[in-house]
Each structure stands twice: as C-alpha cells, then as structure tokens.
Design brief:
Layout lengths: L1 H22 L1 H20 L15 E2 L4 E2 L7 H14 L5 E2 L8 E2 L6 H15 L6 H27 L5 H15 L6 H4 L7 H19 L4 H19 L5 H17 L5 H21 L5 H6 L1 H20 L2 H10 L3 H19 L4 H17 L5 H5 L8 H7 L4 E2 L2 E2 H17 L5 H20 L14 H24 L5 H6 L1 H13 L11 H27 L3 H5 L3 H19 L4 H7 L1 H17 L3 H23 L17 H10 L5 H16 L5 E3 L5 H6 L4 E2 L8 H12 L4 H10 L4 E4 L7 H8 L12 E4 L5 E3 L2 E12 L4 E5 L2 E5 L5 E10 L9 E6 L2 E12 L4 E4 L4 E15 L2 E13 L1 H4 L2 H7 L7 E7 L2 H8 L8 E2 L3 E2 L2 E6 L30
Parallel strand pairs: 7-8, 7-9, 17-19
Antiparallel strand pairs: 1-2, 3-4, 5-6, 9-24, 10-12, 10-20, 11-12, 12-15, 13-14, 15-16, 16-17, 17-18, 19-20, 21-24, 22-23
Length: 997
C-alpha cells in the first residue's frame, strides 16, 4: 500500500514537472542559451589559462611580471586611453603621443570603447573581480561577448517571428550555437583583444532587433519606442565602429523596398524617422567623423538619408490632388510613381545646389562602383593584409568553417540557406513567378560571389577539376535551365523570354573567361559582366514580377511579404559584398550568416514532420537528415573524433578550430622580444623621446614603451607614411632622412626584423608616381648538393625560386648587350666562391632567366654578417647579397648551423637604402648612433648556449633584432614645413598602378 502510494506520488510529481515545463517553455530555452553563452566564454578564455612552462598566465608580460594584451596592435591604443580616462576622469582632447608634432584630435576617433573599458574596470574593481587595469582590459571582450550573444539570439528569433514560438526558439538556439563558434569572429572577441568589434556587434544586433520589433508592431506607441531604441543602438555602434554603415544601408534599402511594395504607411515612416534621428542624436555631438555634411556625402549613411527624403516627399506629394490625378493616369503603381517623381525632384535640387551640384552625383556613382569592384583601392590599403580583396578559392571558403574533401561545408549551407530563405520570402506568389524569382536570386548570388573566384582559375593550387565542376558546372546548368524555361513559356510570357538574354550572356562570359589568361578575378571585363549582370538580372526579374502583379491586380500578395525576411536578406547581401571587398569584412558575414543556416535546417525538418504527401515527405526527410549531419560536421566535426584532442584535420569542426586557435592566441617569442625592447625604452630614454618607425609598431611604443611616435596604426595621416617610407627607410640620402625626422622632433629611429618582409609595402607607399622605389628583398638558401670543391676554393650555390627583378637591367657582356625587363625577368640563384684560405670570397655571380635564356651576371657587393665584412668589388651589377647563418636542424642540445647558409638579394634599389645600410650592414653614422640591439629570443638562446652568432639567423624564417638608434642632427638643420602636410600633393602618389603591387 505504501509502495503504491509512493509510486502514485512519484507519478504525480512527474506530471507536475511536465506541466511546469509546458507552462514554462521558455525556461528550457534560456537554460540552453545560458549553456551556449558559457561555451562562448569558455572558448574565449582559453588563452588566460596558466602556461605550464612558466607557471604564469599565457597573457603575460615577462618584463613587468603582469598581465598583458594579446598578439595584436590596435587594442594597445584603447588600453592606453582607458588608463588615461581612469586617471583623469575623461579622455584627452588632443593625444600628444601620436603624430608628432601635431598630435591627434580624439574627437575624430570613436571614443566610446575606451570609456566602456574604463567603466567595466570600475565595476570589476567594486566587485573585487580584478587586480589591475590591464586585467580588466584583457577580460573586457569576453564580458562584452555575453550581451552580444544574447542580442544575436533575440535578433535571430525576431527574424522568424511569424513561425511557431517553438520553431523560433529552435532556430535562434541553433543559430547562436553556430555564432559563438564562427572562426572569423574569434580574433576580435577573445580575451586580451579589446577590439571595437567585441562591442559593436552587440549594438548592431540590438539595432536590427529593435527595428524589426518596431516595424512589425501593430501598436504605434510601441513601434515608436522600439524605433528610438533601434536608433540609439545604432548611434552607440557608430561611436564604437565604422561598420554602422551596414545598418544604415540595410534598414534604408529594406524600408525603401517595403514602401514600393506598399507596406509602409505614415506610421511606419514615423518609426523610420525616429530611428534615423535617434542615431544622429548620438553620432553628431560625440564625433567629428559624423558632421552632417559628411553624413550626406557618405554612400551608405547618405543612402539612408536619401530614403528618408524620398519617402517623406512622396507622402507630401500624395496630399496634392493634381499629382494624385496625374498618378492615376500614368497607370504606374502608386508608390513607385511617387518614388520616381520624388527622386527627380531631389535630383534637381542637388544639381542646382552650389554645395553639391553635378560633381556630387558623379562622386556618389563612382563611390558605388568602387565599393562594388575595388573598395580599398589605394597603395596603402593594398599593403594591409586585412584590407586586401579576397578570392573565393582561397580566403573566402577557408574563413567560415571546416572543409571536407575539398568542399567548404559552411559556405554551401549558407548559400543554399540564402536561396531557401528567398524562396520563403516569395512563397505567396504564383508558382511560375516563384521559380523565376528564386532562379534569379540564385544567379545573382553566384554572380557576385564567383565573379571574383581566383587570380588564375585553372592553376589554383589544391583545387581539382571535380571541385571546379561542382562550383561552376552547377552555375552553367542553372543558367541554361533559365534559358530553356524562358523559351518554353515564350508564348505566354514574352517579357520573361527577352530577359533571358542576360543569363545567356553570363553563360557565354563564364565559358569564355574561365581560362588562365582571363580568370574570374573580379576586375576584368568578363568578371565585371558576370557580377553586374547578376545585379541587372535580379532587379529586372523583380521589377518584371512587380509589374505583372500590379497589372493583374495582385499587389496584395506583395504586401504580405515578411519585412523581417526582406531586412535579413538585404543584410546577407551586404555581408557578401563586404566579404568580397575586404578580408577584414568577412567577419560581418560570419556574424550574420548563422541564422540562415539554422533556419534552413529547422524549417526543412519542420516541413518533413508536417508534410502529408508520401513522396515529398521522403524528400524532405532525406534533406533534413543530410542538413543535420552537415550541421554537426560544421559545429563539432566527426563525432567519433570529437574527444580525441584539439589538433586540426579534415574532420574537425568549428569547435575544435576555435578552441585550438584560442589556446595559442597569446604572446610568443616575437612579442616577448618587443616586451624586452620596450623595457629598455622605458628605462633608458627620456620621457619626451619621440620614435620614428614604420606605422605598425606605433601603439606598442606608446602603450608598452610609454613614448610618443611619428606614425601609428591609426594611419590618420597616410601621407606621412609615404614620406617616412620614401626618405627614411628606402631613401639613400641621409640628410633628407634627417630633415624629415628633425621636422617631426624624432629622437630615435627603430627598425624591426619584419621590416625586411615589409619592404614591398613601404617601398610601394613611399614610391613616386612611377614607382621609383618599389622593390622587395628575396631570400635564398644554400643548396648543399650544388657545392663544388676545387683546389683554388669552394663554390657555394644559393637558390630561392624565381623572383622577379624590380627594374630593367642592362648589362654589357663582352660587348654584347643584355636587356632584362623588370617584372618579367627573374633571379633564380647566385653563387659565391671562397678562396683557398677559406677566409676570403670572390665576387658573387647571379643567375637571371628571361624567356628561355639564362644569364650569369657578377654582383658588385657582398656582406658577411658572421664577420661584419662588407666587400665592394668595384665592378659588376649595382646589387649585392647579404650572407648570414642558417640553422639546418636542432636535435636536443645539438644545433646544426651553417654560417653561410642563407642570403638576401639586394637590388640596386634596396642595397643603397637607409634600411639596408643601418639595419643590415651596421654602417656607422655621425647622426645615427646605435643605442640598443634587442636580439630575438631564439638568437638569445643560441648565444646563451655558447654559439658564436651575431644578430641574424635563418630558422623558420628570418630571425633578427630590433635595433634602436639615437638620432643627432647637424647644427644647420632646419624644419621643412612640407613634411608636415597632411594630404598628398599628387593623387598619383597614393593610387596603385595596374601591374604593380
């Protein structure tokens, strides 16, 4: 009896629990969300764990024995500003440690981030959760990632607000789980990297979420409140990151499209106005970047302002009776008519306004073209890795997740999911129109993505013909299918038949231009036609369907289109355009794309469970299973290998990849070398010292070394980069270099080993309009198999691939003139010969190849780092070699080193440069006094083991010192005002030339 009573009691408890869970459905959702948030935090703090070798946290400064930031540059600026705010209560008006002697007006920067870091420190300090300002800065991005993840969850759920609540939650949870594991987001949200994006994405998702809440609200008051919240979130993002342009463009385009579809009434327009004005209310007062005239001239923000003007003027014109009567006579859709008329009126106003005029229109058109084709097209931008335009075949497909058997799983899930989302967007329309719209969308996505596929299609390494066929065979089949479909219905729909000429021409260009000479590289005529053909075809198809709906009285079906789908699809397209434009913008696409993948998986599964027809049920069942399997592979990889470590292989998912990356996203030997160099700077240079160097290291000098600099990573005065690159690093005239440094109050010059590899960058930026300084410093390795021993000495051969020469070479070989054209001829090797004593070297000889001919030309100079001996043979090509040691192998305590094992080839342009003379050749100078040499950690360890080595060695690349010179000036030196100009005197100095770097 007692057992039966207890059993009944347990059953009652179970039923109560089930009833409780049913009543509190969201409780389980929030538990799952909490776990996902914890997972994101767990991963992003892997680099804060203890280093087993040192017993200290991995983010550690070995000179101060305290916390430090991760291996990045910009965060050190925000740390320094954070420290200043905490000490003085506010940020300085002018930062006197930057751009000496002018300083930097901080009102031109987005200042909210360091303030948020300072506020976070105060909160953590109050809660006794921090032991230093730096620790607070280290943990700041992780803390910010928590609300960012929650904001993304709300954003993802709101997109699909018309779905059942349980489906909304499932989509949002799966999307959030994918979001926290996106590889491209990790470097900007991990501990130790307090970057702008760690905060900005949270504000972005809130802005989109609040705006969707506002625009889908049935109550005006609620809509207005959410509209203001969306604007404030947008404004806050603008004070953190320039990516706010995406928000303006996405919301502006979505609202304009919705207005044309008849979905926007006055109440919705009021919401749009409040969003726009609330954004500006925060942006304009707090940053000089957002002065009203600059907002109008901005392509993206100006577009949002233009939408405001178009719709506002349209509503005003609707009140004019005669205009309404004329509108009815035109038999054009009402909203479209008023948009066109308003556009013409606004265009005329712009043309007759002195502040704008025709030049403004042409400038905006040019900006749009640049943003679509080559958004970062300047010499400086092309030398910054994250600003380079990616190709799909390399950077694109490798940035979003695992690649299994050559197939980028995440990309294809995103691509197919985007098409699926679009199909749901137009699901209210007739079947024939849905088919053509979905096909048009697919062609459009293919066009903008694959029109920049690779620099050389068929020679792309690692890409086999099977994958090529998968990528482009499907595209061609789709195009052919559209053409056939259009032909079959030509009698019923002639307009659609005529439109098919666009995909027909695209197919032609795809076939003609996927060759070695004409690859789909994003800039040649074939690539541009495919890209813009996609845009034209999509817009033409949309307009065609829109017109047919209007003529047949079916506009109501268009009004039923889900606004949140419109907004999200526009966001995805902007993400693709951004990712196509610059490597650093891939993170935006990575941030917004998980929602469409989750929707694809969950909605397909839901259709399977709801489908009644057997055949369709089987189809959707198989599709759902495949999608779930692929999603598992994306998230965790092969489940059987999931718990077998964190190393990389073809079957590891995003979890393993981001966890592995996070574990090692910490300072290493290179950063430790800098920490030691900055310790010397802090203790051995006056506090008012000013350092000149290439721009990369500015924030480290300012924050770690506590000294002012001429340049830094903000690159607010790019012309100074040109001047320093031209006169100080690549120039040969010492006095001109001194004049530039004197004008900028420089007391010290610093050159780092990585500047050897960056020579291409600063010689490109520092070159004149004809690229007179543009060059590079290639490395060569001794090939022991080619060593030739003879009675009179030993000949050593150095090989290094085929490196193009930087300028034309003309050489007289016993009366025969040899001409080697720059960029076409290559240097492939050179030889040096020791005399019988083994202590002296004969003149080196370089091997050049042009066409199918080989030319051996003697070089005039040689420098041996081992002995510090420079030899000028008085004749030969005006070029030389820098010989230094190479580590062949290390086994335990045994180091196999060849003191002559590596070399750098120095052309005429590089061998006479200040960098070569001071940094490589250790030339003494009356005005540049070597004050400190900070060896790399590896070389220090070699020296400590008793090896006789100087400063350079080749081991997994060039290992070299950080050298610092104290700069003295001639008594008659005067400042040159031209060196303080901020703008390029000739636009050709910053414009890249075709065929150059």
């Amino acid at each position: 009896m007692e057992e039966e009573t207890e059993k009944n009691l347990e059953e009652a408890r179970g039923e109560s629990l089930i009833k409780f869970l049913k009543q509190k459905k969201d409780f389980a959702v929030y538990i799952a969300l909490a776990f996902i948030v914890w997972l994101g935090v767990y991963i992003r703090t892997r680099n804060m764990t203890i280093n087993s070798n040192t017993g200290q946290p991995k983010l550690w400064d070995i000179t101060t024995n305290s916390w430090t930031l991760g291996p990045d540059l910009d965060p050190f600026l925000f740390l320094r500003w954070m420290e200043y705010i905490l000490e003085h209560g506010k940020l300085m008006a002018v930062d006197v440690m930057r751009y000496i002697p002018l300083g930097y007006d901080t009102a031109g920067e987005m200042r909210l981030l360091p303030y948020m870091m300072a506020w976070t420190h105060k909160i953590l300090e109050f809660l006794s959760l921090t032991d230093s300002i730096t620790y607070s800065a280290v943990i700041f991005p992780v803390i910010m990632f928590i609300p960012t993840t929650i904001a993304f969850f709300l954003f993802a759920r709101k997109i699909f607000y018309k779905e059942e609540r349980s489906i909304q939650n499932l989509i949002a949870l799966l999307a959030t789980a994918i979001f926290v594991l996106i590889p491209s987001l990790l470097p900007r949200t991990i501990a130790g990297i307090p970057e702008k994006e760690s905060v900005a994405f949270g504000f972005m998702f809130l802005s989109f979420y609040f705006f969707m809440e506002a625009f889908t609200s049935e109550k005006l008051r609620k809509g207005l409140i959410f509209g203001v919240l969306a604007g404030l979130s947008n404004g806050l993002m603008a004070l953190v990151w320039g990516g706010t342009s995406f928000i303006f463009m996405a919301i502006g385009a979505s609202v304009l499209l919705s207005f044309v579809l008849g979905k926007v009434k006055k109440e919705k327009f009021y919401i749009y106005c409040l969003w726009l004005f609330a954004s500006f209310a925060l942006m304009i007062p707090f940053s000089t970047r957002y002065m009203p005239i600059l907002l109008i001239k901005s392509v993206f923000i100006g577009f949002a302002i233009g939408v405001f003007a178009l719709i506002g003027l349209s509503f005003l014109l609707m009140k004019i009776k005669k205009v309404n009567e004329f509108s009815e006579k035109t038999k054009i859709p009402k909203e479209l008519f008023y948009v066109v008329v308003s556009f013409i009126i606004i265009l005329l106003i712009i043309l007759i306004t002195p502040a704008f005029g025709p030049d403004f229109i042409f400038a905006q058109i040019n900006k749009v073209k640049i943003n679509l084709v080559e958004p970062f097209n300047s010499r400086f931008s092309l030398t910054v890795a994250e600003n380079k335009q990616p190709f799909f075949s390399s950077e694109w497909k490798d940035n979003f997740g695992p690649i299994v058997k050559g197939i980028p799983l995440y990309f294809w899930m995103f691509f197919a999911g985007s098409v699926f989302l679009f199909s749901r967007l137009v699901s209210n329309l007739k079947r024939s129109r849905k088919i053509i719209l979905i096909s048009g969308c697919t062609i459009f996505l293919f066009s903008i993505i694959f029109s920049r596929y690779s620099a050389s299609f068929f020679t792309e390494p690692g890409l086999n013909r099977t994958i090529q066929t998968l990528y482009f065979g499907g595209f061609l089949l789709l195009l052919i299918g559209i053409i056939i479909y259009s032909y079959t219905i030509r009698k019923q729909d002639k307009g659609l038949f005529y439109l098919s000429v666009i995909p027909f021409m695209q197919a032609f260009f795809v076939l003609m231009f996927f060759t070695k000479k004409n690859p789909m590289n994003g800039t040649n005529i074939g690539s541009l036609f495919v890209q813009f053909g996609g845009w034209i075809f999509l817009f033409a198809i949309i307009f065609y369907v829109y017109w047919k709906q209007y003529r047949e009285g079916e506009m109501l079906e268009l009004k039923k289109i889900n606004f949140s789908y419109i907004l999200y699809f526009v966001v995805l397209v902007l993400g693709i355009i951004g990712a196509r434009g610059a490597i650093r913008l891939m993170m935006f696409l990575g941030a917004v794309s998980p929602a469409v993948i989750a929707f694809f998986v969950i909605k397909t599964s839901q259709i399977y469970f709801q489908e009644k027809k057997e055949l369709r049920k089987v189809f959707f069942g198989i599709a759902a299973i495949l999608l779930i399997i692929i999603t598992i592979l994306i998230i965790i990889g092969n489940p059987l290998l999931f718990f077998k470590g964190i190393g990389f292989n073809d079957w590891n998912g995003n979890f393993q990849q981001v966890r592995y990356t996070a574990e090692f996203y910490v300072p290493g030997p290179y950063q430790w070398q800098w920490q030691r160099a900055m310790e010397w700077v802090r203790t051995n240079t006056p506090e008012n010292a000013v350092f000149a160097h290439w721009w990369d290291y500015g924030y480290w000098l300012q924050s770690i070394g506590k000294r002012a600099t001429v340049l830094d990573g903000g690159n607010s005065i790019v012309y100074w980069n040109h001047l320093l690159g031209r006169h100080v690093l690549t120039g040969s005239d010492e006095r001109t270099a001194l004049e530039f440094l004197y004008t900028h109050n420089a007391t010290h010059l610093l050159i780092d080993s990585t500047d050897i590899g960056k020579y291409t960058a600063f010689s490109s930026i520092g070159a004149d309009e004809n690229y007179d300084r543009f060059s590079w410093i290639p490395s060569f390795i001794m090939d022991d198999s080619k060593t030739q021993e003879a009675k009179d000495g030993t000949t050593y051969w150095y090989v290094g691939g085929a490196t193009g020469i930087d300028e034309d070479i003309t050489w007289n070989d016993n009366g025969k003139e040899i001409f080697l054209p720059g960029r076409e001829a290559v240097i492939v090797a050179f030889s040096i010969k020791t005399k019988s004593s083994g202590q002296q070297f004969s003149q080196p000889t370089a091997v050049f190849i042009y066409g199918d001919q080989q030319y051996n030309i003697p070089l005039r100079y040689i420098y041996l780092d081992d002995t510090g001996k420079f030899s000028d043979f008085g004749s030969g090509l005006d070029a030389g070699v820098f010989i230094f040691p190479k580590i062949n192998s290390i086994q335990g305590q045994q180091v196999n080193m060849n003191y002559l094992g590596a070399a750098l080839y120095l052309s005429k342009r590089t061998i006479h440069s200040q960098l070569t003379k001071l940094y490589l050749f250790d030339e003494t100078s009356q005005y540049f006094k070597l004050a400190h040499t900070q060896d790399s950690m590896f070389i220090e360890s070699l020296k400590s083991s008793g090896m006789n080595i100087k400063h350079f060695v080749d081991y997994q690349g060039l290992q070299g010192p950080i050298k610092i010179w104290q700069v003295n000036y001639p008594a008659d030196m005067e400042k040159n005002p031209a060196f303080l100009e901020k703008d390029f005197p000739d636009i050709r100095l910053k414009t890249p030339q075709p065929g150059e770097y």
